[in-house]
Amino acid sequence: MSNACVTLNQLKFSWPGAQRLQLDIPQLQIDTGERVLLRGPSGSGKSTLLSLLAGIHKSKPGQINVHGHDLGKLSQRQLDRLRANEIGYIFQQFNLLPYLTAVGNVELAVKFAPARRARLAQRGVSVRAAAQQLLQHLGLDHNSQQQLAQHLSVGQQQRVAAARALLGAPALIIADEPTSALDEAHRDNFLKLLFQECDAQQSTLLFVTHDATLAPYFSRVVELEQLNQAAESTHV
Ligand SMILES: Nc1ncnc2c1ncn2[C@@H]1O[C@H](COP(=O)(O)OP(=O)(O)OP(=O)(O)O)[C@@H](O)[C@H]1O
């Protein structure tokens, strides 16, 4: 049986109206539990690839499989459900709701994700307790957890965004340049905590950056420009 969390086959994607293929990826597999760094310069298509993996945009032709589901065969409703239940997304700008507390932002992650709530119930923890525990592990004390997101520092917001992605153990954590605003010490500490939590709940991690110095932290580095046949001269 395949141990893949993500597989891509013959993926070709161009933005509407564009003359050029943005992505042409013959094959990529990410195994369950892997920690993969996806690297590429600005504009190379990293975020585009993530949006395809998360089912936000569709790739025709090509096949994308996430956690055993062929995204091309899912209805919009099924895609939304898969995304909510099995993909935790850490955005570059964090996308927190400013008027909710830190813990409120984290809890929101599972509101429309019954499988994530069920996994917490199986562990015998409430959503609130699990959110608080994750925030604690990621370095936010009780006081900070009760603060409105808009009053948190950038580093604290980033931890809240990570806790929100991790709550309820989705199969795949996608992190889109979440460390770009941090200094080196904070960045290293954040990565350590993120890895610990991914390992603890066996979530696969796909981490995107253009920062080459992060490579040693990961079990595998994928260079998008090597993977993407459209990066050089392929045209539609
Ligand atoms: N919604 C969109 N519509 C049309 N073109 C887009 C859209 N989003 C991105 N692009 C184009 O796709 C290309 C790749 O962009 P993308 O954001 O995926 O790159 P990236 O590698 O994530 O860059 P960065 O590191 O700067 O975030 C760019 O040329 C961009 O202009």
UniProtKB/TrEMBL annotation:
Q: Which organism is it from?
A: Pseudidiomarina taiwanensis
Molecular function (GO) terms for this protein are:
ATP binding; ATP hydrolysis activity; transmembrane transporter activity
Taken from the record, one Pfam family name reads: ABC_tran
ABC transporter domain mapped to chain residues = 6-236
Q: Which residues form a coiled coil?
A: none
Keyword check for Signal = no
Source organism, top-level taxon = Bacteria
Q: What is this protein called?
A: Methionine ABC transporter ATP-binding protein
InterPro entries xref list: AAA+_ATPase (IPR003593), ABC_transporter-like_ATP-bd (IPR003439), ABC_transpr_LolD-like (IPR015854), MacB-like_ATP-bd (IPR017911), P-loop_NTPase (IPR027417)
Q: Which GO terms describe its cellular component?
A: plasma membrane
SUPFAM superfamilies reported in the protein's UniProt record: P-loop containing nucleoside triphosphate hydrolases
Q: Which CDD domains match?
A: ABC_MJ0796_LolCDE_FtsE
